[in-house]
Amino acid sequence: MDERKPRGVGGRLILALTLLFFYFPIFYIILFSFNDSRSLTRFSGFSLRWYEKMFADSTMMEAVLYTVLIALLATVISTVVGTVTAIGLSKSSRVLSAMVERINDLPVMNPDIVTAISLLMFFSVLAVRKGFATMLLAHIMFCIPYVMLSVTPKLRSLDPNLIEAAMDLGATPFQALTRVIVPQIRPGIVSGALIAFTMSFDDFVISYFTTGNGVNNISILVYTMSKRVNPSINALSAIVILLITLALGVVNLVPILREKNGRAAAKQPNRRLLAAAAAVLALAILIAAVAGSGAQRRRQKDAVEKYGSAVLKLYLPGEYLGENVISDFESQYGVSVIVENFDSNEMMYTKLQAGDSYDVLIPSDYMIERLIAGNYLQPIDKSLIPNLDNLSEAVTGLDYDVDGVWSVPYFWGSVGLVYNHENVDPAVMEAEGWSILHDTDYAGRIYVYDSERDSFMMAFKALGCSMNTDDPAEIEAAYEWLRQMNNTMSPIYVTDEVIDSMINGYMDVAVVYSGDATVILDENEDMSFFMPEEGTNIWCDAMVIPANAENPLLAHEFLNYMLTYEAAFDNSETVGYASPNAEVLEEMSTQEDLYAENEAYLPRSDGENDEMFHDNITLQRELSKYWIRVKAEN
């Protein structure tokens, strides 16, 4: 007895730790969905603000709708197809059955990214317009194998003479299938359906490459939103968790309640009640749709007459829009805007190469050079954009498009160092510049942005070189500089999580983009921002119109709209990057209730060592190769 008790206590402890490991992150997300501040790690008070923002965000609601709809359709279709195929194979020859089973295993064993790229190219070759249909087809394709894998073992356990026995007793082949075989393999079918639903519901990689026209699921939305601190993600996650918990509760409780109360007595009334509720809900939706559709159709008709289309397709980095920019544009011009997000310029370029069509893109400076060289852009008709007069001189005549023939500036900024001035002497920061990342006084206390382009930039600048150099000796020297930093400073390589981490003061120094630094300095008064005198990257993201844009007139209208005071102000205040609108830039950088006291907001325009990146694919490949070696030693 006494010997068994410790084992029992140990078992319970292991069970408790296991449950904590699995469920603590879920409880954490739910808790911080009620956080009053933007922080994802510091709870500053109870609030429902992020739930309000989530429900007010039409993009989020559409993503939830698409996720559920595609998951349900993919589950039903793949379950039917997979089950029928498995039954058919069970009656086929061994050679055919074995061959199809091996083919069926390929999508399961194949890396998602390979499947995703293959489908992207397949749809592009067929010139299929990517969107809801392509994503649904992709989900059905990768769900069918899981259904077959669940159903096949159940079929193998059946008596092979079962169908013949049923038909000998007078059953038709269809009756033998539906009344004999299907009930026997129902557990396998249900398991396959549940797996298919789960796989479809949370798929990201394949969905990302096969969607288009603004059709996003929750996974894509969360991924693009995670680029900056957005606690609405927590609210959305908490709602999803709640719905899944309720669904599981219903699935487990309904059979128990039916058995307790009697199936026959409860079945018909419940069905009538559900049917009545569904009819009322459908009627309410129909009335609302009819009431709002008339005025919307009239406005869309006017937009079509003026621009040739009432739909604009916008492709830009995630979390890069003001809160009301899109809704105000849609309301003002009577159009609909389909917003899609990319996580890198290279990903955007890949989609363009695959033939995807957008009306407006917002790439970075060096990528605009590549797009111009590849004839992917059409010239800007400046007569359609009178608000070009609103541009600040700081963003005109830039290297990547000196005469502004191909692009209109959207945001501009720099790369610098955010540091805790309570722990790092500002005088030391000014004296050392980028070399502070070699100062062992701060070893183990620095964040470095996980980007070969930005990391080699600071190494080149620290060594007095151009960040666009292609000199092998200088590249090798920069590599050694980064190796030394890596080996002596123990840096932590991060991406956008640096924002929340520096808000909470986890490190003393971090390499940060200026707009992210603006957010950090706004949230933590102990933080300061510094751009080293050795020089840095002064970058500009700009709006361009692709050569294959379907609605160039509406695209020009959008470019003109984004240069208005109202749109530029909303954009800059929300995101934190410097506005190209001269009036907004002046107001943001001089008014105390905005960013007058925030040294990160306004990039310098007089740094003699500052540069912009130029497109050089060969150099980029070299830097990527060296960066992999640097990271491998971390």
Describe this structure in words.
With 634 residues, the chain is α/β, with parallel strands linked by helices. It folds into four domains: 28 residues; 190 residues, MetI-like (MetI-like fold), CATH 1.10.3720; 153 residues, D-Maltodextrin-Binding Protein, domain 2, CATH 3.40.190; 173 residues, D-Maltodextrin-Binding Protein, domain 2 (3-Layer(aba) Sandwich). It is built from 25 helices and nine strands. β1, α14 and β2 form a beta-alpha-beta unit. The longest helix is centred in the middle third of the chain and has 45 residues. It is globular and about 95 Å long.
Question: What brief labels describe this structure?
Answer:
634 residues; alpha/beta; MetI-like fold; D-Maltodextrin-Binding Protein, domain 2; 4 domains; 6-stranded mixed sheet; 9 strands; 8% strand; globular
Helix fraction bin: 55-70%
- Rounded mean pLDDT score: 84
Rounded to an integer, what's the Rg over CA atoms?
29 Å
CATH level 1 name of the largest domain: Mainly Alpha
SS strand fraction: 5-15%
Count up the helices: 25
Measured distance between first and last alpha carbons: 51 Å
Annotated CATH architecture of the largest domain: Orthogonal Bundle
Overall number of domains: 4
Number of strands: 9
Described by the principal axes of the CA atoms, the overall outline is globular
In the predicted model, the low-confidence regions spanning at least 5 consecutive residues are: 264-269, 285-295
**CATH-assigned fold name of the largest domain:** MetI-like fold
Quickly give the structural class: alpha/beta
CATH superfamily of the largest domain: MetI-like
Tell me the major beta sheet.
6 strands, mixed
